[in-house]
């Protein structure tokens, strides 16, 4: 039942309200510095193609009954390629009917031969559920139907057996394939013996760590399919990125046809870039983007436009939710019209919110990226992005949550003062032009590969002649045997451990352990879960943890038991953790001079130690620092790869600044280098870590430990003799960023210089070298001087 | 290529546990002294078209052979095939594996088989000296299973057999021979003795059920190994080639098979004459267990009689409640509403059963006694009890919600029956 309010709103009315908002925002922007882009994307017409002649009549009838009598050109093209036994990747925007691209040929094949089996992989369980509903609907319209099931952690045990036998289409996710299906492939014999199609949806999400893991899971999948004599064909779909074909072929290690023309129609849409006004030109301070995003969202809600607000962190989701709920007070008897949505909420809570959005009883939702993909939440009318999501692909996907079906819609990107946001806000062409983003994976990351090699050996003994990625398999298998994991008999290595290797290997992160959050104010109650890496920064003792707009004070963090005990409180601040990082060089892979400058560049293996040592209390609304505390939490250690620049003694000495300002300049430079690097590598800010340390006298020696150095620690340290500026991969084993950075060092340094030199601030700001107050008076100037040296011809 | 020491830094290569130091050759030495293993175990080499494996055979006078009785099998098996009555068709099976997790990387390195022979028990153990001998072992197992059609195990339905089925399928050559009849004694043992013993591990059953009343088993578990160590013993043997510690594993497997056979004898005897057993047993919990098993196997009349007897003899609090609940269900099924209702009334006072009892009484009064007012009253009391249980955290939220929905639905229906719709004036204020 749609909400009565929702029924009242007609499409034409919606158009007027969107135009009204755009006009009003433009009118307020006297200087023209705020709305850096108002892009009107006109409606586009559909391009049609007839249903291919080979499609079975009952399937044609079933699609007709759903109102689909002909196809968009890209759907027809995809179906034909699949029919021709090619691997394909279909690149289309949100709401372009991509599911027909794979469902049509796959179901047709099942109707032609009922033994045919297909495995659909979605990055999340929720997306699989979404697809199930659509496929069920199609199945009901076919005389004989077909078996379609989701298979994930929520599948009841008694249903699993029949799914293994009867499922023509099994919808699952990479994690379940990894832990639930491949290690038990004999139970899935019927499926594997007849497996023909693998559908990989939302392919662009398989980048970085997750993508590198998936490539290995697919190696294992192909291995098992071969064991049962099956040849696999892959059908992939991806959001717009620069290298979908390359990504797909690296993932499946085979040739792939790219289909990137789009025949689907689209409604009119506005994309607006909103750069918060500068309030202090001297310090380069802009109005808080969180407050501004909240204000924009309120304008939209005031116009009765159903709105989704995306924030980039859990913390900001909760902060924004608090603001919007306060501005949109409901009488106590009414259900809340503005809701939060993120990973930590319980599934039932999330289903309820999705329903509320579809029905219109919920007028606004504040979400993390959890609502970015798939998930039928109906057609919203407006999207607010509080901060740039980090990639262009994900910005388009989030913007696509508005106007999936209805007429006019708008998406407003509110830029933060982070360098990447400022870069995008000031270079709209970069965004609206051809996608420059490359998705990157490193399937041969040894740490990841060895873990999957263990799983592979568990699934099927490893043969001496076998290939698994680009590694020396016999050498690696011998090492695994020495460590007791394998035993060689004749031509094969067999698994010799009691433990089940897939169980301890998470595809998404370094560890698979979650922390449970327990409210102990009254009867102990579990209110949510947080993954291990986040736990240290958001659940440390005295942290303010936010959940559904409620504040909780962390009383105790039980590390051994993975539990955080919290009590509900009401305070006017939130907390931010302070982290120290140390880097030690273990092995230099390559090194070279940086032009004629007294500087060097290198990349190689490093050991990174980090520790959360304290926290700051930040006041709501004003965001002033209202206190701090020290913490003693366990250290985290990891081996990874890093790229680094060494500033040699003559360079450091030549800088015409006092010692402390030299240091500030280095931190500022590193800050900017990190930002530009994420742009070049198309990775998330969290994928790269930064640190400064003294250049070790000899790599690999114990004395190589750097002084703990991170922002906020400057007062304790002495002068650097020859500092190393590190950019490290924030994952054990590295994810392959260091070598490209080393190769593109010149571009990295030049772009960084452009970023800092082109920034409007006087003495450094969060958009270039970091906030002036924290970085010191001359940080910007010092950073630029170092860059001038590094760029010398 | 990667420098060799790069491997050393990989977290993924760090052993999860301590290992026996591996011999420099890193391959087994048993090839050099094959007789050591054979002599130690009293084994011989078996050969077939897939290669070879080891076989150990031994006859034991205890436990004594026994014959399955028809009434007992009626209670134990849903279908009662003719061949199940023939003791020569019985094959006892127990495996020793490289882990409990299951999955395609878990191996059954020792498959113990046993059958009645010459008044005692013949035990045959099939062993693979390394993974290369698995095919040959499985072929032999498949032959044995073809000779005897009743597979008898302890927890074999969810562990041993699925694992072996996986092993067979991994060969892609020897199809798994599905047991015609599979009798898993874990389930009846659980029903009979879990309450009394807390756990029904085979070892506990040997000590408290099979070996009681001064009857000795004929074997002693005193020097037996902890079964949790078995996978590691096999891995150490594979890596080092030293067979000494394997002897204890073979012995453990033999005792498990003998325990299994003895347990079969005991359960058959017991179920063959439940009346006699009920009279003889001094243990009221065992009597309750037997009633439960009879009830679950569809022998409602016998079960009711024994339940009543157990209740009379006096059961401890929680068990008494459970017995009344089971008995009430059986009585209801046999349309003895008077007895069922009186039992539900007995149960009302308690916390969680109270909920069910209220609901059952509501059902009874709505549909059988046709007293909707009383039914509504019981429903309201059920809702109140549910509220208490929820606040006390005694009931899971999901179960609580479905329970509540069901009760509210019933209450609404009853309200329609008991209160014919009253025509209210539109001007009248709505009820509070």
Query: Helicity of chain B, in percent?
Result: 40-55%
Give the spatial strand order of the biggest sheet of chain B: 1-2-5-4-3-6-7
Gyration radius of chain A, to the nearest Å?
Answer: 27 Å
Structural class of chain B: alpha/beta
Oligomer: heterodimer
In terms of DSSP E residues, the strand content of chain B is 5-15%
Low-confidence sequence ranges of chain B: 21-32, 424-432
Shape of chain B: elongated
Main sheet of chain A? Answer: 7 strands, mixed
Distance between the termini of chain A: 69 Å
Q: What gross morphology of chain A would you assign?
A: globular
Number of helices of chain A: 26
Give a summary of the structure in a few sentences.
Chain A has 793 residues and is an alpha/beta fold. In chain A, 36% of the residues lie in helices and 24% in strands.
Commentary on this structure:
The complex is a heterodimer of chains A (793) and B (432). With 793 residues, chain A is of the alpha/beta class. In chain A, a hairpin with a 5-residue loop joins strand 22 and strand 23 (525-531). In chain A, helix 4 packs parallel to helix 5, helix 10 (208-227) packs parallel to helix 18 and helix 24 (745-757) packs antiparallel against helix 26 (779-790). The termini of chain A are far apart. With 432 residues, chain B is an alpha/beta fold. Chain B has helices at 5-8, 34-41, 70-76, 134-147, 156-171, 186-197, 202-210, 230-240, 246-272, 274-280, 284-296, 300-313, 317-333, 337-347, 352-368, 372-391, 397-418; strands at 44-48, 51-60, 90-97, 108-117, 120-127, 150-153, 181-184. A seven-stranded mixed β-sheet of chain B has the order 1-2-5-4-3-6-7, with helices on both faces. In chain B, strand 4 (108-117) and strand 5 (120-127) form a beta hairpin. In chain B, helix 11 runs antiparallel to helix 12 (300-313) and helix 11 (284-296) runs parallel beside helix 13 (317-333). Classes of the chains: A alpha/beta (793), B alpha/beta (432). At the A-B interface, helix 18, helix 19, strand 20 and strand 21 of A face helix 5 and helix 8 of B.
């Amino acid at each position: 039942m749609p909400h009565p309010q929702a029924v009242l709103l007609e499409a034409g009315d919606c158009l007027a309200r969107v135009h009204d908002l755009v006009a009003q925002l433009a009118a307020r922007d006297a200087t023209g510095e705020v709305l850096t882009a108002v892009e009107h994307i006109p409606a586009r017409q559909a391009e049609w193609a007839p249903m291919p002649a080979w499609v079975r009549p009952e399937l044609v009838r079933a699609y007709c009954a759903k109102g689909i009598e002909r196809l968009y050109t890209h759907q027809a093209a995809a179906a034909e390629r699949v029919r021709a036994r090619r691997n394909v990747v279909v690149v289309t925007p949100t709401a372009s009917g991509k599911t027909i691209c794979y469902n049509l040929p796959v179901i047709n094949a099942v109707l032609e031969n009922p033994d045919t089996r297909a495995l659909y992989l979605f990055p999340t369980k929720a997306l699989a559920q979404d697809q199930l509903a659509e496929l069920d609907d199609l199945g009901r319209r076919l005389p004989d139907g077909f078996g379609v099931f989701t298979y994930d952690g929520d599948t009841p045990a008694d249903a699993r057996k029949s799914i293994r036998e009867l499922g023509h289409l099994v919808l699952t996710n990479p994690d379940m394939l990894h832990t639930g299906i491949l290690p038990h492939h004999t139970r899935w014999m019927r499926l594997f013996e007849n497996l023909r199609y693998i559908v990989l949806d939302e392919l662009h999400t398989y980048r970085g760590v997750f993508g590198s893991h998936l490539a290995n899971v697919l190696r294992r999948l192909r291995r098992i399919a071969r064991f049962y004599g099956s040849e696999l064909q892959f059908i992939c779909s991806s959001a717009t990125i620069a290298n979908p074909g390359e990504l797909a072929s690296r993932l499946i290690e085979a040739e792939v046809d790219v289909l990137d023309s789009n025949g689907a129609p689209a409604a009119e849409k506005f994309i607006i870039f909103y750069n918060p006004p500068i309030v202090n030109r001297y310090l380069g301070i802009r109005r808080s983007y969180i407050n501004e995003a909240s204000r924009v969202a309120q304008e939209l809600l005031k116009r009765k436009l159903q709105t989704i607000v995306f924030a980039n962190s859990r913390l900001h989701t909760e902060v924004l939710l608090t603001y919007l709920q306060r501005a949109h007070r409901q009488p106590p008897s009414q259900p809340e019209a503005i809701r939060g949505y993120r990973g930590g909420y319980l599934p039932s809570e999330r289903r309820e919110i999705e329903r509320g959005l579809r029905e219109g009883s919920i007028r606004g939702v504040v979400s993390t990226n959890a609502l970015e993909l798939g998930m039928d939440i109906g057609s919203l009318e407006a999207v607010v992005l509080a901060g740039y999501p980090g990639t262009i692909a994900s910005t388009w996907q989030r913007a696509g949550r508005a106007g999936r079906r209805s007429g006019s819609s708008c998406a407003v990107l509110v830029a933060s003062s982070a360098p990447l946001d400022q870069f995008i806000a000031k270079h709209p062409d970069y965004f609206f032009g051809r996608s420059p983003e490359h998705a990157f994976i490193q399937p041969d990351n040894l740490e990841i590969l060895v873990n999957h090699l263990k799983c592979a050996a568990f699934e099927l003994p490893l043969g001496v002649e076998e290939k698994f990625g680009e590694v020396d398999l016999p050498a690696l298998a011998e090492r695994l045997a020495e460590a007791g994991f394998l035993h060689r008999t004749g031509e094969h290595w067999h698994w010799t451990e009691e433990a089940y290797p897939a169980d301890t290997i998470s595809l998404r992160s370094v560890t698979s352990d979650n922390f449970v959050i327990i409210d102990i104010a009254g009867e102990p109650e579990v209110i949510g879960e947080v993954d291990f890496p986040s736990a240290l920064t958001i659940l440390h003792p005295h942290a303010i943890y936010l959940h559904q707009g409620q504040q909780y004070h962390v009383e105790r963090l039980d590390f051994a038991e993975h539990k955080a005990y919290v009590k509900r409180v009401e305070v006017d601040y939130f907390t931010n953790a302070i982290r120290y990082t140390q880097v030690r060089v273990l092995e230099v892979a390559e090194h070279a001079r940086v032009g004629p400058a007294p500087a060097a560049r290198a990349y190689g293996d490093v050991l990174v130690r980090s520790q959360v040592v304290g926290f700051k209390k930040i006041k709501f609304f004003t965001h002033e620092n209202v206190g701090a505390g020290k913490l003693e939490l366990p250290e985290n250690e990891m081996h990874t790869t890093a790229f680094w620049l060494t500033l040699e003694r003559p360079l450091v000495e030549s800088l015409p600044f006092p010692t402390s300002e030299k240091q500030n300049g280095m931190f500022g430079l590193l800050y900017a280098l990190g930002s530009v690097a994420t742009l070049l590598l198309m990775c998330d800010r969290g994928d790269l870590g930064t640190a400064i340390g003294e250049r070790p006298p000899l790599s690999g020696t114990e004395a190589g430990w750097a002084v703990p150095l991170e922002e906020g620690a400057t007062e304790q340290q002495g002068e650097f003799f020859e500092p190393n500026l590190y950019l490290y991969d924030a994952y054990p084993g590295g994810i392959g960023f260091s070598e490209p950075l080393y190769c593109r060092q010149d571009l990295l340094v030049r772009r960084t210089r452009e970023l800092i030199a082109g920034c409007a601030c006087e003495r450094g700001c969060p958009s270039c070298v970091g906030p002036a107050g924290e970085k010191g008076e001359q940080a910007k100037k010092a950073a630029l001087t170092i860059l001038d040296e590094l760029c010398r011809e | 290529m990667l420098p060799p020491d790069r491997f050393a830094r990989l977290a993924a290569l760090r052993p999860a546990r301590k290992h026996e130091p591996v011999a420099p050759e890193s391959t087994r030495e048993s090839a050099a002294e094959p007789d050591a293993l054979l002599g130690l175990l009293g084994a011989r080499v078996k050969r077939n078209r897939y290669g070879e494996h080891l076989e150990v055979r031994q006859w034991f006078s205890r436990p004594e052979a026994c014959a399955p009785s028809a009434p007992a099998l009626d209670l134990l098996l849903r279908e009662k095939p003719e061949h199940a009555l023939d003791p020569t068709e019985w094959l006892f099976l127990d495996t020793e594996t490289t882990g409990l997790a299951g999955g395609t990387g878990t191996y059954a390195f020792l498959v113990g088989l046993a059958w009645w022979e010459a008044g005692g028990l013949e035990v045959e153990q099939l062993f693979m000296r390394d993974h290369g001998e698995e095919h040959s072992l499985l072929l032999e197992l498949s032959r044995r299973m073809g000779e005897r059609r009743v597979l008898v195990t302890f927890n074999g339905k969810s562990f041993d057999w699925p694992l072996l089925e996986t092993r067979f399928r991994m060969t892609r050559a020897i199809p798994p021979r599905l047991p015609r009849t599979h009798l898993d004694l874990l389930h009846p043992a659980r029903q009979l003795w879990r309450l009394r013993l807390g756990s029904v591990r085979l070892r506990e059953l040997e000590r408290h059920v099979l070996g009681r009343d001064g009857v000795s088993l004929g074997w002693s578990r005193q020097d037996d190994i902890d079964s949790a160590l078995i996978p590691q013993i096999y891995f150490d043997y594979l890596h080092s080639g030293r067979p000494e510690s394997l002897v204890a594993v073979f012995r453990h497997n033999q005792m498990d098979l003998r325990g299994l056979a003895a347990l079969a004898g005991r359960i058959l005897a017991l179920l063959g004459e439940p009346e006699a057993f009920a009279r003889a047993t001094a243990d009221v919990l065992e009597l309750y267990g037997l009633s439960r098993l009879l009830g679950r196997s569809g022998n409602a009349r016998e079960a009711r009689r024994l339940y009543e007897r157990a209740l009379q003899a006096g059961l401890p609090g929680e068990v008494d409640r459970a017995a009344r609940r089971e008995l009430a269900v059986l009585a209801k099924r046999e349309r003895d509403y008077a007895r069922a209702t009186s039992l539900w009334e007995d149960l009302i006072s308690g916390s969680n059963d109270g909920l069910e009892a209220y609901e059952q009484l509501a059902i009874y009064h709505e549909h059988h006694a046709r007293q909707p007012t009383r039914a509504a009253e019981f429903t309201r009391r059920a809702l109140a009890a549910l509220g208490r249980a929820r606040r006390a955290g005694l009931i899971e939220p999901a179960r609580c919600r479905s329970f509540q929905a069901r009760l509210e639905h019933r209450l609404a229906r009853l309200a329609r029956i008991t209160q014919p719709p009253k025509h209210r004036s539109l001007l009248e204020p709505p009820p509070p």
